[in-house]
Design brief:
Layout (H helix, E strand, L loop, with lengths): L12 H4 L2 H10 L9 H4 L2 H9 L16 H15 L2 H4 L2 H10 L9 H4 L2 H10 L12
Helix pairs in contact: 4-7, 5-7, 7-9
Length: about 140
């Protein structure tokens, strides 16, 4: 997974369920999260570890339309939450970790979390556009 970005796609179920292997793959190629086992994507501690991991500065992705590192971070966080379970999108700590990296990740949170004042404020502090995703009550 360090040498070939998409190696996890072709890995065994055992490797796709191995935390260290998947975190290494995600660190090097954030789309690799798609190939993690369902168990890992639904594991709270694993999802938090992914969201808090250091994203490797990308190579030049201009041909793919991704031009800067902040865009990479935003895509990484959003992708991670889209691939997480509904339970993870309703987990306050998970969403708080996500919006601290990218405020617009609030759009992937449950409506309950979108009404949480602290989470919404953290999201807005990171990116004022996040206000768009807060509940109407806010």
């Amino acid at each position: 997974v360090r040498m070939y970005e998409r190696a996890l796609k072709y890995a065994s179920d055992e490797m796709r369920n191995n935390r260290e292997v998947v975190l290494t793959a995600v660190h090097n190629y954030w789309y690799a999260l798609e190939y993690a086992s369902t168990d890992l994507r639904n594991d709270r501690e694993f999802v938090l570890a992914v969201l808090k991991s250091t994203l490797k500065k990308p190579r030049d992705y201009t041909s793919g339309g991704v031009r800067d590192f902040q865009t990479q971070v935003s895509l990484f966080v959003g992708w991670g939450l889209r691939k997480a379970s509904a339970e993870m999108r309703n987990d306050r700590e998970v969403i708080l970790a996500a919006v601290q990296r990218d405020g617009t990740a609030l759009k992937h949170a449950s409506m309950k979390i979108r009404s949480d004042r602290e989470v919404v404020l953290a999201a807005i502090q990171q990116n004022c556009v996040a206000l768009r995703y807060a509940s109407a009550e806010m």
